[in-house]
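Subject: design request, 319 residues
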């Protein structure tokens, strides 16, 4: 481990609106070796079914992340003092071929996870979680999953295609990448194709907390309750920005009304502290529909919060 840790470029060293727009203004490097965690972009949107634009997500999240400062004042965590972190750039997906992109993503994450570096992904549409979980499987075995989303993403197929942004968790369960009894989906809502849409996952032991079950309440008690179940093995956090209400996060491809608040999103992620997290993603940010930049700003903040709950972020933290 390097003795000098990477730190984000400070706002008093270079104006926040200037300089290269890496995630949180961290150093950029190709090689994940020696890193405890990395930010990595997957500029993919050919798996989307409605509005496109998530290919621009990683770049816009990086741009908005320039405002972030290195310490978490709410939780007392200074992740860059405890961990070596860098932005390792984007995965060069094939914009003409989804199947090939999935292969490229799996290969890229294989290389990252093999070094022991924890990937925090800037999406990109939700298709990307399938190849990421395939790579996780190879190095960690099946994982527990916290999945925040308006949608279950458990479709059998979309337009006859097995791989799309509405199918990753169906495929992942079928392939044994996830332990369904250690999976929870939070924020599901909206219109569906059949009233039985959530049954396939429920029958396999997945716990579903609909958006309605989250309305008007803090989600901290839910997260505390999940601890013992999730602690049983490695955990992956997959956060679709459309889990949050379009009032807070309009810049996404398939918005649904009545969603979580940005405060509830913070409660979910902060509630992951202490869990054996092996990776996380923040997906479906579509900048063309994000006229204020607030969706990407929210995404950037949530990715920082994810970094702050990694087990390594707590090393040496003062009580
Ligand atoms: Mn999704
Ligand atoms: Mn969704």
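Subject: RE: design request

Done. Sequence follows.
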């Amino acid at each position: 481990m390097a003795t000098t840790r990477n730190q984000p470029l400070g706002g008093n060293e270079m104006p926040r609106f200037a300089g290269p727009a890496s995630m949180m203004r961290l150093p950029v490097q190709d090689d994940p070796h020696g890193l405890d965690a990395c930010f990595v972009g997957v500029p993919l949107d050919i798996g989307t079914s409605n509005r496109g634009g998530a290919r621009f997500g990683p770049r816009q999240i990086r741009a908005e992340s320039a405002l972030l400062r290195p310490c978490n004042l709410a939780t007392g965590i200074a992740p860059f003092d405890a961990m070596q972190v860098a932005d390792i750039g984007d995965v060069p997906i094939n914009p003409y071929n989804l199947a090939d992109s999935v292969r490229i993503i799996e290969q890229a994450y294989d290389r990252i996870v093999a070094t022991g570096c924890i990937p925090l992904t800037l999406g990109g549409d939700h298709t990307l979680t399938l190849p990421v979980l395939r790579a996780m499987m190879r190095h960690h075995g099946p994982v527990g999953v916290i999945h925040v989303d308006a949608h279950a993403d458990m479709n059998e197929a979309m337009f006859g295609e097995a791989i799309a942004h509405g199918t990753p968790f169906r495929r992942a369960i079928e392939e044994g990448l996830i332990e369904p009894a250690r999976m929870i989906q939070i924020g599901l809502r909206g219109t569906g194709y059949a009233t039985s849409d959530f049954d396939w996952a429920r029958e396999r032991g997945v716990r579903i907390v609909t958006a309605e079950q989250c309305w008007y309440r803090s989600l901290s008690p839910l997260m505390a309750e999940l601890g013992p179940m999730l602690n049983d093995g490695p955990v992956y956090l997959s956060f679709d920005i459309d889990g949050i209400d379009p009032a807070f996060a309009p810049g996404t491809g398939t918005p649904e009304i009545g969603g979580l608040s940005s405060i509830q999103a913070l409660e979910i992620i902060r509630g992951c502290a202490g869990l054996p997290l092996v990776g996380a993603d923040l997906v479906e940010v579509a900048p063309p529909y994000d006229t204020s930049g607030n969706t990407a700003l929210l995404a950037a903040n949530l990715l920082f919060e994810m970094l702050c709950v990694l087990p390594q972020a707590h090393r040496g933290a003062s009580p």
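The pocket of manganese (II) ion (ligand 2) is lined by residues 149-151, 240, 242, 254, 284 (CB under 6 Å).
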